[in-house]
Design brief:
By secondary structure, the protein is an alpha+beta fold. 30% of the residues lie in helices and 27% in strands. It has two domains: 272 residues, P-loop containing nucleotide triphosphate hydrolases (Rossmann fold), CATH 3.40.50.300; 112 residues, no CATH class. Helix 7 crosses helix 8, helix 8 runs antiparallel to helix 10 and helix 10 packs parallel to helix 12. It binds adenosine-5'-diphosphate (ADP) and magnesium ion.
Length: 420
């Protein structure tokens, strides 16, 4: 079985431009196969991810439901803290690369208030431009001028409501299907310890880890059955993260699945790594002790969630083009956080990975490429998202160990800020 599809091409989302969305007045951010968004609490990291997630939700549900799930349009429109006034609309523009069809696309939506207040929102513009080896296609809808330009393949004469998007309609057709499928398959993980531990009814079969950590037991079981190499890889990373841990598995309780963990019981005659190398790691071994879900530490449970998200079957098979993880280092011992970074770097060969962090620990890891870092800073109520300045990058190239100290002391400077 082909376990891991390596996809060393460009990341799926190569660039993100946002205007007037939450705390972001404007940003223009290039993304890498692995991107770390680093910034202090409430600087705007989640808001940036939410711009991407909003596009996903608007396409899967509808713009109105994507807004309703976030409260109201008012809470999404950027509010100027000094005037207290909110912008009339927000815009999100994504630049995409498709290695499968050797293509590129840009997709842009602009959402604003309905001046007649009949609807919760209006789709002011929606634009798609797609260029691939096989097809050129584009459409553009501009509600302000009432203009509707469609070129390329014939589009069905879809009657769109003023609060609806065209892509979910035309996404049934080639080549639009490639764009729709990829955008709707992006996943945004914000893992919750209780959800990761919960009992999950296996009569509803699940193959993907839920975005709060639902179905962890089922997905681990699926990995063990169908992708043993990937399951062993998850266990291998976990051994690195948690002392004496041998592996985490699905546990069945009637029709319900949850997790349990195998630990080495500390027999001094057979040291841990010797036992692992000898394959003495299975639940039946007298030196292996099994612990139940409620006995497991938060770090064990959360670490398993992060590693399972990265190595789940759909991600390995290229079915999740972008996988974002909020604060993966939470509850992980600072000395072990570099292992998580290495696991994310590995996974970035089969899915684009974005992680947020407010910890310096992730930044001390040798594996971190300063070029994959994006700094998120809040100044006067406005988030700024930038790459490290050229000067900072140069210093760090000579002294990589400065990175974490810079961050801890708030001395990292992005390009924009230096104004050079
Ligand atoms: N519509 C808005 N206009 C201006 N600021 C906003 C808006 N919505 C949220 N914010 C600000 O965004 C900040 C939180 O950003 P968030 O992305 O959650 O931070 P973090 O970096 O911790 O993930 C809050 O301080 C909040 O005031
Ligand atoms: Mg956050």
């Amino acid at each position: 079985m082909n376990e891991k599809i390596h996809r060393d091409a460009a990341p799926f989302v190569t660039r993100v431009r946002v205007r007037d969305f939450r705390s972001i007045a404007t940003c223009d951010v290039r993304l890498e196969p692995l991107t770390i968004l680093a910034g202090f609490n409430a600087s705007g990291k989640s808001n940036f991810l939410d711009a991407l997630r909003f596009v996903r939700d608007a396409l899967v549900l509808s713009p109105s439901r994507a807004v309703a799930e976030r409260g109201s349009l008012d809470s999404l429109l950027h509010r100027n803290t000094s005037t207290g006034r909110a912008a009339p609309s927000f815009l999100i523009e994504l630049h995409l690369a498709f290695s499968s069809v050797q293509g590129e696309a840009t997709y842009e939506i602009q959402i604003g208030r309905d001046p007649d207040q009949e609807r919760p929102l209006l789709v002011l513009t929606e634009k798609l431009r797609l260029i691939s080896r096989e097809a050129h296609a584009q459409y553009s809808i501009d509600a302000i001028s009432g203009e509707r330009i469609v070129r390329g393949d014939d589009l069905p004469g879809a009657r769109l409501g003023p609060d609806e998007l065209l892509l979910p309609v035309v996404g049934r057709l080639t080549p639009y299907d490639t764009v729709l499928r990829a955008l709707t398959s992006m996943r945004f993980y914000d893992l919750d310890t209780n959800t990761l531990r919960e009992l999950d009814d296996t009569r509803v079969r699940q193959t993907q880890l839920g975005e709060r950590g639902e179905h962890l037991g089922q997905v681990l079981g699926l990995l063990a059955d169908q992708h043993p190499e990937a399951k062993e890889s998850v266990d291998g990373w976990m051994r690195w993260l948690v002392p004496s841990l041998l592996g985490v598995d699905r546990r069945m309780q009637g029709d319900f699945a949850t997790i349990e963990a195998r630990f080495w019981n500390g027999d001094p005659i057979v040291p841990f790594w010797e036992a692992v190398n000898a394959g003495t790691v299975h639940a039946g071994d007298p030196h292996v002790q099994v612990f139940q879900r409620e006995q497991l530490s938060e770090g064990t449970v959360r670490g398993t969630g992060v590693l399972t998200a990265l190595n789940q079957p759909d991600a390995l098979a290229g079915g999740i083009p972008l996988l974002a993880i909020e604060e993966p280092e939470l509850a992980i011992h600072p000395a072990k956080v570099s292992g998580l970074l290495a696991a994310m770097a590995e996974a970035s060969h089969w899915t684009q990975v974005i992680a947020t962090t407010q910890s310096s620990d992730l930044l001390t890891a040798e594996e971190l490429q300063p070029s994959s870092l994006r700094l998120v800073e809040m100044a006067a109520g406005v988030s700024r998202i930038g790459e490290l300045s050229r000067k900072t990058l140069q210093v760090l190239r000579e002294n990589p160990s400065y990175l974490a100290d810079y961050h801890r002391h708030g001395q990292l400077r992005s390009d924009e800020e230096e104004g050079a």
